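Customer escalation, tier 2.

The customer says the design service returned an amino acid string that "doesn't look like it belongs to this structure." They asked us to rerun it and document both sides in this ticket. The original structure tokens are below, unchanged.
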């Protein structure tokens, strides 16, 4: 996750079969670079447009990265506000944030309902375990 963005999701939607099918004739190394860019795209929202910045993101020398990018990878990304994005990553991020907001709201509703139910019943007696423990603490040791 980005240290500057508290809105980040703590997970990445990843479907291995989809990656393998969409890259079935690629060398493994190129698949790994593609996956690295997809993960960066997920957590950053967009990836840089500069080949130099992309190569640095992948930890590669520009001379090694450039032919891979130009031959295969750039076809997998489109221009977006602020950089490049993979269309599926962009779509999945929107859906993940929507589902996250639904979960947050459901949690709020559940918490309010629970609090209201406790208020409606009134104060609850202390459990026997706690009462017995307190009584045992007062009793002299045997």
């Amino acid at each position: 996750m980005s240290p500057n963005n508290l809105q980040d999701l703590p997970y990445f939607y990843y479907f291995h079969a989809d990656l393998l099918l969409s890259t079935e004739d690629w060398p493994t190394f190129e698949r790994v670079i593609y996956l690295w860019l997809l993960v960066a795209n997920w957590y950053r929202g967009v990836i840089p447009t500069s080949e130099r910045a992309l190569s640095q993101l992948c930890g590669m020398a520009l001379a090694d990265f450039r032919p891979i990018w130009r031959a295969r990878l750039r076809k997998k990304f489109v221009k977006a506000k602020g950089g490049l994005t993979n269309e599926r990553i962009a779509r999945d991020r929107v859906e993940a944030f929507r589902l996250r907001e639904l979960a947050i709201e459901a949690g709020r509703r559940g918490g309010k309902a629970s609090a209201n139910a406790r208020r409606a019943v009134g104060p609850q007696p202390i459990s026997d375990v706690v009462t017995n423990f307190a009584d045992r603490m007062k009793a002299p040791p045997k």
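Tier 2 assessment: The sequence is consistent with the input. The longest strand covers residues 78-80. Strands lie at 78-80, 83-85. Sent an explanation to the customer and offered a walkthrough call.
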